[in-house]
Each structure stands twice: as C-alpha cells, then as structure tokens.
Write a structure and sequence with these properties.
mainly alpha, 53% helix, globular
Length: 104
C-alpha cells in the first residue's frame, strides 16, 4: 500500500512476533500488546475499545478516521520501541542472522 502511494520503505523490517518467538519459543503472548506489556510495561488500547465486541462490534471501516489513525500510530510507535529491545536480545542469543534470513 505504501509503494502505491509513492512511499518507499527503507531499512530492515522487524516482525516483533517472530523476534519474540525466536528469543523464547515456549512463550505465550507474542502479540504486540502482550509484548508491550511484558517488555516495556506499557498497556496499549485494546482493539475492542475501537470496534466493540459481541453483537455491538463494528468493522474497522466504521471507526472514525482520526480514531483509527491514532490507534494505528500507537501500534507503529510500539513496534519501533519493541524492535529496539528485541534486536539486541536476538544478537545476544546469536539469532540475528537467522531472523533476517527468514525475511523478517
């Protein structure tokens, strides 16, 4: 989507879920919000705060653009913060090459 908009992504891409799994394959809670809490002690807004749950749940396209943008921005910032923590852990365990060979 970014390329179609004329934006070029540069640098390494970091999949925080794969990085967290490589660091601790037996762990649970590899998702962004779990990792933010576990590694950074940050509680993120759950998606249910935006779209609700159960019968009252809506789809993301019905969320006001400003609300969705703020939520997505927070996810992007947290991904960047987690990458700064996870990449040194991968290096410490000798897993950096494996991680990037996997295309992460």
């Amino acid at each position: 989507m970014l390329a179609r908009s004329g934006l070029v992504v540069q640098g390494d891409l970091v999949d925080t879920m794969i990085a967290a799994w490589l660091i601790d394959p037996g762990s649970r809670g590899l998702g962004l919000k779990d990792q933010a809490w576990t590694r950074l002690n940050v509680e993120m807004t759950p998606i249910s705060d935006l779209i609700g749950s159960g019968k009252s749940q809506i789809t993301m396209d019905r969320v006001p653009a400003a609300t969705a943008a703020a939520y997505a921005g927070a996810d992007a910032v947290m991904t960047l913060r987690l990458a700064a923590v996870l990449l040194p852990e991968l290096a410490q365990k000798g897993l950096t090459s494996l991680f990037f060979q996997a295309g992460c």
